[in-house]
Every structure is written in structure tokens, then in C-alpha cells.
């Protein structure tokens, strides 16, 4: 199995669990060797709401490492989301490890005021059920 096909399997597994709507779209990230791309996707209507990449003129003009450019892409997508009135998104790492440039996109978006939430799965329990009283330990009586 090649590296790209393994990433594709992971990507499909992630996409089964998350989807974005108009009020809370999915922030999808694609990473190539030289550039990084981010999109806000409304999965209910199948529409891309906004997009940003490291190939945009203002980002490409800056001579900076790829991680710094990734933070700028995150800030750009957060700015575009703010113009659309979107405050919260669901982060889709696209099968990549949450590290390096992918993490930098999320951090750049957070620093620019975008709230990155997470999807609650069906297996997660509500907080009320997690708070159970701790069992009381009984002390053993010793014969003296």
C-alpha cells in the first residue's frame, strides 16, 4: 500500500464521522509538497463557501518558511469566514497527521478568532453520566 492510498483510507474514515453545515462548515486542509490549501465546505449543500491557499499573492510574496505560510493561510481563511458571518468550524485534517503545517493552519485560524470545534460521536457519553460517585472504601478491622 502506498503512502497516498493509506492517507486516502484515513481520509475516508475521517469523512464518515464529520460533516459541516451552513452554520458550522468543515475546514478542509490539503497539503502538497510546496503549498497548502484550506477550504470552508458546506456538506449539506455541497458548496465551497471560502478558500485560501499559500499560492495567493499576498501570502506567496512573503519570503517565509512553509509553516509560517501555513499560519497565514489559517489567518486568511478565518478572515474570509468572518466576512461570511461564520464563527465556528469543524476541522478536517484530510488524513494528515495533526502536526507541522496542518497544525499551523488550525493555529493561525484560532489566533484570528475562528472557533474550531469538534464533532461529538454517538459513542460519547453526556457529561452528566460521567460524574459518578466514587465508591466508599470500607476499612478492614484488624484483630488485636
Overview of this protein structure:
This protein has 144 residues and is α/β, with parallel strands linked by helices. It has one domain: Nucleotidyltransferase, domain 5. 36% of the residues lie in helices and 19% in strands. The protein is built from five helices and five strands. It has a five-stranded mixed β-sheet. The model has no long low-confidence stretch (mean pLDDT 85).
Q: Please state the overall shape, judged from the principal axes of the Cα atoms.
A: elongated
Number of strands: 5
| N- to C-terminal distance | 69 Å
CATH class: Alpha Beta
Helical residue percent band: 25-40%
What can be said about the biggest beta sheet?
Answer: 5 strands, mixed
SSE topology sketch:
Elements: H1 3-17, E1 26-31, E2 36-42, E3 47-53, H2 57-60, H3 66-83, E4 88-92, H4 101-111, E5 115-117, H5 127-130
Parallel strand pairs: 1-4, 4-5
Antiparallel strand pairs: 1-2, 2-3
Helix pairs in contact: 3-4
List its traits:
elongated; 144 residues; alpha/beta; Nucleotidyltransferase, domain 5; 5 helices
Task: Give a summary of the structure in a few sentences.
This protein is 36% helix and 19% strand. With 144 residues, it is of the alpha/beta class.
